[in-house]
Amino acid sequence: MTMNKRLSILLLTAPSMVVLLGVFLLPMLLMLLLSFQNDEQAFSVENYLLFAKDPYYAEIMWRTIRVSLWTVLCSLVLGFPVAMFMAQATGKMRGIVTMLILAPHLISVVIRNFGWVVVLGEKGWINEVLLALGLIKEPLRLLYNELGVVIGLTDSFIAYMVLAIATSLYAIDPSLSKAASILGASRVRTFFTVTLPLSLPGLVAGTTLVFSLSMSAFVTPALMGGTSVKVMPVIAYEQIMATLNWPLGAALAFLLLGSTILLVTLYTRLIETKRYKEVFSS
Amino acid sequence: MSKVIDVELRSLMKKFQNNIVVQDFNLQVEQGEFVSFLGPSGCGKTTTLNMIAGFLDPDGGDLLIKGQRMNGVPPYKRELGMVFQTYSLFPHMTVAENIAYGLKLRKISKSQIQERVGRVLDLVKLPHVADRYPKQLSGGQRQRIAIARALVIEPSLLLLDEPLSNLDAKLREELRDELKRLHQEIGVTTIFVTHDQEEALSLSDRIVVMNHGFIEQIGTPKDIYNRPASEFVHTFIGKTNRLEGEVAGHEGDSLIIQTIGGLLVEAKSANLMLLPGQKATVFIRPEKIRLSADTAPEGRNRVNGQLKLSSFLGSYTECEVQANGHSISVKLQTVDKGVELVPGKAVSCSWDAEDVLVMPAERG
């Protein structure tokens, strides 16, 4: 690379670098330092030890992971067919579907969550209809539990899953499924032996994205989980805003960040085998 | 021994919306035969192949493979082999896994799969690439593997959808010979779709020439080349000189035509049903025309003119001669010593009456 090119890259990225350093990395560093302080503002690891000692926190962490995994699974199962439809559709139809998927995101997540409250509540139309049909005797509990949170999160993040998988599917040569078919594979067989393996990069991107977003989601668990389904971002928020225990709140936030990174790394390591790299490296 | 018919198409028809793309397609392919569908793009050849493969369902007529009606049978139940233009190897499988794919679906034992994969790799002369991924192979190697994958299941019919058109010229020729050798060795009934006349001529037992969804002619390569059924077939296959004129008279088994430029052309064994005064078109292949530097008097099948262009193309020389208002192209295999092909030179073109093809002028 010539000096000129380097210089122009540096100059072009400088504004965002400055912003990132100033308002992201620096505050993160300060929070990290803060998380190692005790009441007397001396260095200590007690905030982290508390997490190890008190099963209350471990349970919340496990719940956060569990809810995120369910969200990933639901968006995958519901999103894959949509992505496949997009991959098979013509350009115009693709545009329409992309727009439909993204349109809800034009509305604030808070409003959308309240929309779900109206739909899923004890007096929501789902329960009303089921009661009227006599299929259930008491209203189902669809809100303020983990199910409610998973529904809310899936609604929020499924778009990422669909678009990530669709991008991968677009790259698959349509004649491959023809080749599989003529070699004797039924549609289901073709899906599992050709389409699915070749969509792995998009699938990994989609699941990682949805998992990370679900782990750190705050608004939806707060609104649709209520007080009974507490997840890590919610208790970190409480420590900082309600209890004013900033060091503990910071420690919880970093524990969440650490476990997300750890899980995502393990996951990608597991998937990105030697074969995966051989096939998908460009 | 009576001949076994492997594939039979009876009045096959296909339309997309209201657009008929294949019409009145009748064909019988014998066991072991190599048949090509030849025609320009959009002539319906690929559509017909896709109907045989089962990717498209005919809107009319019957399709029989080995005597069984196949209309509506999905591709995966047809036991066919197919090679696609884009190779279509599974990128996430090694060469061996690609070839084994069809065998695994047929629940063949591991040891047998291994043996058959090895054998077919030997057949396409690529025994050393079994553990490579498709993207580590060259275009020619990929297409050979695609052929191996299609052949390994011992299909009742091999379908080739323009398999050579993504390769460069030299490789294309190499793989064409390879296809010929494989067909001779295995003898599998083959249907080959191409828009390349040379491929069709060199490989086929019979050629089906198609245009606008119709069959123009079915015949051996020699028939198609020497006795074309229509002007389309004649002009699509090989270069030709086209001279318009009208019938001047008959002379024994010859037909005399006077061209618009006043040239007299004698054609032997032509269509004698043509009547004097009727408009007719004369065709003479460039390679059938002789060129000489002497300017003997003009006469039947002999015209004097001026050399306009000559291009040396290695194995032959292409010339263009302006004579009597006609532009005649000539293909010379050898150039007589002492004859210099300089533009502007006076030359004489002549040809034999046997090499002249006459067709009634197309109306409209």
Provide tags for this entry:
heterodimer; A: 282 residues; mainly alpha; MetI-like fold; 14 helices; 0% strand; globular; B: 364 residues; alpha+beta; Rossmann fold; OB fold (Dihydrolipoamide Acetyltransferase, E2P); 2 domains; 6-stranded mixed β-sheet; 5-stranded antiparallel β-sheet; 23% helix
Brief sketch in words of this structure:
With 282 residues, chain A is mostly helical.
Describe this structure in words.
The complex is a heterodimer of chains A (282) and B (364). Chain A is mainly alpha-helical and 282 residues long. In chain A, 77% of the residues lie in helices and 0% in strands. Chain A has one domain: MetI-like fold (Orthogonal Bundle). The radius of gyration of chain A is 23 Å and the shape is globular. Chain A has 14 helices and no strands. Chain A has helices at residues 3-35, 46-53, 55-88, 91-102, 109-120, 125-132, 146-170, 175-182, 187-198, 200-215, 219-225, 232-241, 246-271, 274-280. Chain B is α+β, with helices and mostly antiparallel strands and 364 residues long. Chain B folds into two domains: 5-236, P-loop containing nucleotide triphosphate hydrolases (Rossmann fold); 241-360, Nucleic acid-binding proteins (OB fold (Dihydrolipoamide Acetyltransferase, E2P), Beta Barrel). Helix content of chain B is 23%, strand content 35%. In chain B, helix 2 (95-105) packs across helix 3 and helix 2 (95-105) packs parallel to helix 4. The two termini of chain B are 48 Å apart. Chain A binds chain B through residues 173, 175-176, 178-186, 189, 193-194, 197-198, 275, 278-279, and chain B through 53-55, 74-82, 84-86, 88-92, 101-102, 105-106, 133, 149, 153, 159.
